[in-house]
Amino acid sequence: MIKKEEKLQNMNQALKALIEPEGDWLANLANSSALLFEFMSDINWAGYYIWKQDQLVLGPFQGKTACVRIDEDKGVCGTAYSQRKIMLVDDVHEFPGHIACDPNSKSEIVLPIIVGGEVIAVLDIDSPKKSRFDELDHEYLKEFVDILIDETDFLPLMEKF
């Protein structure tokens, strides 16, 4: 059985190989969410919320249907957006203002995607297990987002800033 760290390393290598020849932001967000869903165990949702019209709006994802719009400072995603930091939540039901898009989700990690000094989106990953995410996930998912930023043309999303 592959160790968790090796699986996360393989996931990031696969991301780089998958999106390196393709710069389109929509294609890369779509494929990267599928990659997360394929490589990460015990998750029930992986995808993006894109900042537009003063809200986070649902973008490419894998999993059950989701909340379409999230306000700044609301829930884990809105908090990660406004605080510009990675949010790792062991029990979402104890998080003040948690938005329960899927009642089966118990833990969550959200990473802001910062391009040109602006948060243009967040990567949101949910799990039906409490305390699913740890510092190893934090480290490799931060690298995952860095690869995504380096290999993707986000300029069309930047026009509003």
From TrEMBL:
InterPro entries: FRMsr_CS, GAF, GAF-like_dom_sf, Phosphatase_reg/MetRdx. It holds the Pfam family GAF_2. Residues 38-146 form the GAF domain. SUPFAM superfamilies: GAF domain-like. One of its GO terms (molecular function) is L-methionine-(R)-S-oxide reductase activity. PROSITE patterns: UPF0067. GO terms for cellular component: cytosol. It comes from the Bacteria. Belongs to the free Met sulfoxide reductase family. PANTHER family: FREE METHIONINE-R-SULFOXIDE REDUCTASE, GAF/PUTATIVE CYTOSKELETAL PROTEIN. This is GAF domain-containing protein. It comes from Halanaerobium saccharolyticum subsp. saccharolyticum DSM 6643.
